[in-house]
Amino acid sequence: MSQESTLANLGESESLRRTIGRLIQGEYTLVGPGDDAAVVRAPDGKFVVTTDTMIENHDFKLEWSTGFDLGYKAIATNVSDVAAMGARPTALVVAIALPSTTNISWLEAFADGLNAAITELAPGAEVVGGDIANSDLVFVSVTAHGDLDGREPVLRSGAKVGDVLAVAGTLGRAAAGLALLQSDTDAKSAFDDLVAIQLRPQPPVASGVAASLAGATSMLDISDGLARDAHRIAKASGVSIQINSKDLQGFEAGVEQAAMRLAVSASDWVRFGGEDHSLLATFPEGVVIPREFKPIGLVVEQTDHLVTLDGIELQQNGWDSIRG
Amino acid sequence: MSQESTLANLGESESLRRTIGRLIQGEYTLVGPGDDAAVVRAPDGKFVVTTDTMIENHDFKLEWSTGFDLGYKAIATNVSDVAAMGARPTALVVAIALPSTTNISWLEAFADGLNAAITELAPGAEVVGGDIANSDLVFVSVTAHGDLDGREPVLRSGAKVGDVLAVAGTLGRAAAGLALLQSDTDAKSAFDDLVAIQLRPQPPVASGVAASLAGATSMLDISDGLARDAHRIAKASGVSIQINSKDLQGFEAGVEQAAMRLAVSASDWVRFGGEDHSLLATFPEGVVIPREFKPIGLVVEQTDHLVTLDGIELQQNGWDSIRG
The domain at A156-313 falls in which architecture? Predict the structure, then answer.
């Protein structure tokens, strides 16, 4: 790598120009990058907004993630929160801090990862603004926006007694991928599909709108594990949630081989593993649930136990981003 | 300070709860913090969005800035970009990363700083979402949103030959404040008004809407110094800009005592100093320029020199956030 192409040598303007120059354009953008601010359409007179941050050595390791992976994950984890409101992603802003010794090719790969995730997960959206700063550690902060097309947002607090609990997307695969990355190289390559989900999450973004249209009463994105996120719906909605272990067996089957290889519990990954960014939603009994949602339980009157698995309390052994 | 009240001991949920609990509510918020995303009104079917990042030891030092100062500055620097589009700030999201050994009182002061800046600079706006993460260095990333009330945004690219160049807000005071902080304590306390502008910038936010209503043809917020930001307007608009040094004398007078004390040039602070977050705008000849804008020059046909001071080329010795 030529020393001339480090960010320090290119400077902020040129680094920004090269990066922004690669970004794909979206359908909602009225004024894109390059001014003090962007301007984005919000056709129904309101917009959804969410933010999420990834920090080197806390949320990712540069030895595991390429610039492309990191760009992809930054988009994926944020549009998943937009989807969880029942909205369609429209625009994002991306702030990144990184060492000035970084080669521009890393940043270009990061931009390509942003593009790939938008193309695959949020077509029509655009990175309308951003910021590049200098820091010893890599730090990525994304804010994502969405359009509800006139619908009400689907909150965590709307679950009703009698509703069906259902999940769209994977469970346990991202946790399996993380465990594989932390293990020996051999196991990693044998289960590269699981590693890929950890590095480049595949949230079922379109299912968020589908759930809203189907009448979902509550929804969130499972970032901290099924158990913890089910607790959040139960708490916000003033209900309890019963999960049936037999409905989780399909998810367990998907990670069983890897769990055996690492001599750990597949069901723990499915119950407690975070970062799949799947959607957990509740639907009134009798509605036609979108086919990508798999029913896994029921909403019942609130008891001492907010979440049970086969009638036994399910603790929320999830992930705390401060305590780790 | 009790060890019990560190963020590590309180955990993410409780730290967030205590912080969010302090935040004031705004007029545009439909769904505030606590769900996967917030929902914000955009009455005219579009919204303005901008993002800015502050990193410890690059953009601030914890020995100089309190938590309150940092919260204040995070809001101020971002709403100033919203104002520079001619918009009114409506909502912000704030991501902060900080050591888990930080006492919750620091984070509470940060929240109070957010509130104070919103009350003073962007009344009606609200912090509608955020993120708290763990990092050895403090890192603050804010995304701000604004409402144009049906108007077109004021871009950098609209300056026309014959327009008057004018500035609202201070010039050189933030640079003076920084130089004072870097100097001995004695000078610092003698010019605490200048230090205060560096720590808690006072962008003339309402003047952004006023400029738009008056017919401003271009506008930006002076974050990197008058010279560099005037170049940006000239380049984006395909014009040259003539600045008159006599029109800068009032700004120089405001920092002259401090410059003498530090034996440096007051006019350099005014011409090249960043972080005042004042508004630089161009207005068609003959319009009534809002009184808070001081005319300092003219827009002319583009020449080899994009910006001149009394006819001599003014170099853009501003600030590069990567090269420093």
Answer: Alpha-Beta Complex (3.90)
